[in-house]
Specification:
Layout lengths: L2 E5 L4 H12 L3 E6 L15 E4 L2
Parallel strand pairs: 1-2, 2-3
Length: 53
Amino acid sequence: MKTILVTEPTGYIGGRLIPRLLAKGYAVRCLACHPERLLGRPWAGYLGKWGGE
């Protein structure tokens, strides 16, 4: 299984890309300025999350 890093997962593209990557079997890691904004996403429990700028 390959691991993919997505920056700005709460943005328009990241929010649509992540579910597709997960559906294809990729492990997804995210780098977000405000990781708390991921909490409402249905796929948030499947991510590795890091906060940063």
